[in-house]
User: Which sequence fits this backbone?
């Protein structure tokens, strides 16, 4: 089955330094005999990955194309790197990858199979995302915890309804299998409009893909995303959303994104304001999470007082808040434990990754 779909998919591995994670990713790929094409876009500060590929003779073991780019120490260079790399992809489908994450080969095969059979109706296909944390190390370890997150289908007939569902809290689709031409178009826009905020490129990608077709999520583990301090942020995303919003380009980029999206939607002249209102609600949680008010300084005390006042003004009561918070955390632990058992019993990719991380 792998061989049948191996010529249809390219994995675009986007890297910058953090060579230990890249070595781990490549070791995992050749240990499982990755059947898909692999394109490495290296915007690092040195050539150690290039030497590793050569020394390990990986081009004879994997279908690798290695491209060394300029050092992508800015968002604009990072975007240009991805745009240029996508021009080299010759397969009809592509998936983006970071060097600290893994994909299930069996899972990717199922995604490509599903998408290729329904390519006239669907623009993207994803699976279950499994977040994992290594408790006794950063790159390798024997104590690994998992937290699976199921996807939700975007099966609405109208593009505007799929985008609206996404903005109301739907799951992301950045790391899905996408049609290559669609992804190229996204980064053409990103480079053309000279985006300064990588978050806008992600927002554009996910909504743009939704305007071009339905999106399916299969109930099988596919994408394994590592959690941890300093993990998973090669794209230079900020943790302070308010600081991002204060940048002079932020508002113009938001409007550019929604101009592109609404042009692909039904009744495009009237939907932009409605979608922007939904986007406002979408960004409230990251704005609140980005507020740091833990010190004893006067400004932080004022922020805490305002948040508490608003909570009580909206009719909340602290005892109920803490009761539900503790109860939800307890249920979440139980749910995750059951999910871990369920995933481990259902899919061999969990066992493969556990063995790889503990024995390497």
Assistant:
């Amino acid at each position: 089955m792998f061989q049948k779909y191996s010529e249809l998919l390219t994995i675009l591995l986007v890297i910058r330094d953090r060579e230990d994670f890249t070595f781990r990713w490549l070791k995992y790929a050749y240990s499982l005999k990755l059947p898909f094409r692999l394109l490495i876009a290296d915007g690092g500060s040195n050539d150690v990955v290039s030497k590793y590929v050569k020394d390990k003779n990986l081009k004879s073991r994997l279908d690798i194309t290695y491209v060394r780019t300029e050092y992508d120490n800015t968002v604009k260079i990072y975007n240009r790197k991805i745009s240029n790399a996508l021009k080299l992809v010759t397969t009809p489908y592509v998936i983006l990858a970071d060097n600290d994450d893994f994909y299930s080969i069996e899972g990717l095969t199922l995604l490509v199979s599903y998408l290729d059979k329904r390519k006239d109706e669907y623009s993207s296909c994803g699976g279950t995302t499994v977040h994992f944390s290594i408790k006794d190390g950063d790159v390798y370890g024997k104590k690994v915890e998992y937290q699976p997150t199921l996807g939700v289908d975007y099966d609405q007939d109208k593009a505007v309804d799929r985008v609206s569902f996404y903005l109301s809290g739907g799951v992301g689709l950045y790391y899905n299998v996408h049609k290559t031409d669609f992804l190229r178009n996204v980064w053409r826009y990103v480079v053309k409009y000279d985006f300064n905020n990588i978050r806008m490129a992600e927002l554009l990608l996910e909504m743009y893909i939704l305007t071009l077709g339905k999106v399916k999520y299969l109930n099988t583990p596919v994408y394994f995303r590592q959690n941890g301090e300093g993990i998973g942020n090669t794209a230079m995303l900020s943790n302070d959303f308010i600081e991002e919003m204060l940048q002079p380009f932020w508002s113009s980029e938001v409007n550019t994104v929604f101009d592109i999206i609404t042009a692909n939607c039904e009744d495009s002249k009237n939907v932009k304001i409605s979608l922007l209102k939904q986007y406002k609600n979408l960004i409230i949680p990251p704005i609140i999470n980005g507020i740091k008010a833990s010190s004893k300084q006067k400004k932080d005390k004022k922020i805490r007082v305002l948040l508490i006042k608003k909570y009580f003004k909206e009719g909340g009561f602290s005892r109920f808040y803490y009761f539900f918070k503790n109860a939800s955390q307890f249920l979440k632990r139980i749910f995750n434990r059951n999910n871990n058992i369920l995933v481990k019993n259902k899919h061999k990719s969990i066992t493969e990754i556990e063995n790889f991380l503990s024995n390497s």
